[in-house]
Amino acid sequence: MTYPHFEAVKIAMKQDKEGMVLTLRIHPDELPIELVKDFVGARYQVVMVRLDGEDKPMQREREHEADWVRMAGILSRDPAFPKWLEDIGELLEANDKDAVEWLRGHLGVVSRSDIPSNPVAVQKLRTVLKEFNEWKN
Hints:
Layout (H helix, E strand, L loop, with lengths): L7 E9 L2 E8 L6 H5 L22 H18 L2 H8 L8 H12 L11 H18 L1
Antiparallel strand pairs: 1-2
């Protein structure tokens, strides 16, 4: 059995009471006739692979690596982060500079960009984020 396949571009995403609504743009030449003939409300099993700039499957690991760097940056800029460190006894006085230094030292990295390649740093960052968010809430 053959299954329809096509290339599409994500153009919108929204949420309603039943879940997420994903809108894709499909070129008319790519649109499978089976999809056109199916009734509105038909269910599908969907497999999607994001393409990079060379039309090859994107390596998602790279995206996740960037997420850890981004999360460490967001954490460092959160005004409550130094207060939390002071509250748990890691800083004597809450200030941004010492909070950033503490995070680097705690994770054992020189720079945030070192986090993705260090599994111990990733695990420690996960723990810090979890504990900090629990404290905030």
